[in-house]
Amino acid sequence: MDFQNPSFIKSDGLRIATYVDGPLGGPVVILIHGWPELAYSWKTTIPPLVEAGYRVVTYDLRGFGASDTPRGVEHYAIEQMVADLEAVINSQTSEKVTLIGHDWGGIILWHAARMIADRIQRIVSICTPHVKHAPVDPLKIFRKRFGEDHYFIEFNHRPEEIESLFARDPDAFFRLMFRTTPRGQEMDKKFTYIPKNFATYLLQGAPDLPGPVMSDKDRNVYTRAYKHSGFHGGMSLYRNTTHNWELAKAMSEKVFHPALMLSPEDDLLLPPSSTDHMPEIVPNLTRKIIPNCGHWAMWDNPDGINKAIIDWLGLAPTKA
Known about the structure:
By secondary structure, this protein is of the alpha/beta class. It is about 40% helix and about 15% strand.
């Protein structure tokens, strides 16, 4: 996969950077990244899928990487994100595809499974469960459980200030974020105070931290990309939480596609237990826990993630 030379497609008047590898005519697999990530996050996942015979497509979400980065929160609602995904699918095939999403890519994937269901054959979500529709605005739930410093709340209440904070030193931001979960660490609400934690880290001089999940060379790819794109796009995904919740009121909770839910054992934000409700709303579901793995799963335990995906999809893939 050549991440230096994307191909661009158009969606909603925007340029979306796509990256393609694998045999022409192979079953198409679309990889959807999360926040604060890039198409590059699939670096370790693409080769095994290509070797298994898949045509693998990933892309920088709008607001990320080499894709266009429009200003304005309205450009990042779930309708726009799913429309971009459908444009990527259309650029590659008229047939059904397999979707694999991580983090926010999982949120996009679960919405797409209901909004463009006829374009999708199978689903793999890494970390992010499909959830029942919340009885109240999710922001109210986060505020009650975690307080005003939770990053969802901060992104919505003072977005420009937080955007400027992260942009002060993107490399320090990724050194803080992209780390393994220390053995024995338990979830604490302060873990969700990302802006506050980063401000403190900068005041400490941004020292080296234990447990990086990637090399300096790989981390520098993110640093350069976010110096170019800024943090507006990614934060705007979270600023659409209320809008997306309201939109989903009219949708069925049920997803009937064959689905694989991969839960890293050490993911503090989205632990395996967060998927316990899923069989009720995803009838054709396989759940698997990935050991020795935290939230940045494709970097933390690529062998475990890749084996689980390949085994589930089958080593001799066939078209939909």
